[in-house]
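[Meeting: bench + compute handoff]

Bench side (C.D.) handed over the final construct sequence. Compute side (W.E.) agreed to return the predicted structure before the next meeting so the bench team could plan truncations. Sequence as handed over:
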Amino acid sequence: MIELENLVKYFGDVHAVDGISLVVPRGQFFAVLGPNAAGKTTTIKLVVGLIKPSFGRVRVAGFDVQTQPLEARARLSYVPDFPFLYDKLSPWEFIRFTGQLFRMTDADIRREAGELISRFNLEPWLEKPIDSLSHGTRQRVAIASALLHRPEVFVIDEPMVGLDPHHARVVKDILKERTGQGMTVFLSTHQINVAEEMADRIGIVHRGKLVAVGTADELRRDSGQNGALESVFLTITEPGAVQTPMPAAP
């Protein structure tokens, strides 16, 4: 469902992404971990087509993100760590506008939005201007809007930023439900516990390379660490650790 093929992105002499190959199949929850400036957000922007790769290619649902952008973007949703919302709209206006962008009928918008609005507890805020909402409420609006058209691929950067524990749980539950229904999730986070709890597979990016990938147990085995996933992460990303790019196989 998501295919990265020898993906490279240079910014001047900085190798932000350096030869990443990866396949994330349909219905898999894939989490990306990495230190600051490891290349996680750049990789995500390449996946969703916000920036062009220096080399390599990205396919989403079989469509090349650069040469078939409309087909690829029609099948995915993207929520950045600080999502852009139209501040003068209300949450309901923004949700409806998002549905219309994906050519949903009003009936479909109302049906899909009803469940999401209820689960994210957005009813009290639906008619208020977005610029009056807290960061956490804005995040809930962004995630609900992105899920509205039931995307095949859902890409999200730091999903729990600003969310209280209750709504963080709601996000986790919905994403796991949707992956069970076939949606592919590509998530970037600094929260190791979120990756361990949620992901079917975890990739660790360091200095632009995908240096480890597998289930939590496979990462423990390969790193020689039997304890918390945090210990695995620190071992793999410590200064002087051997940087071996991982193969693309799922």
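W.E. noted at the follow-up: The mean pLDDT is 90. C.D. will use this when planning the next construct.
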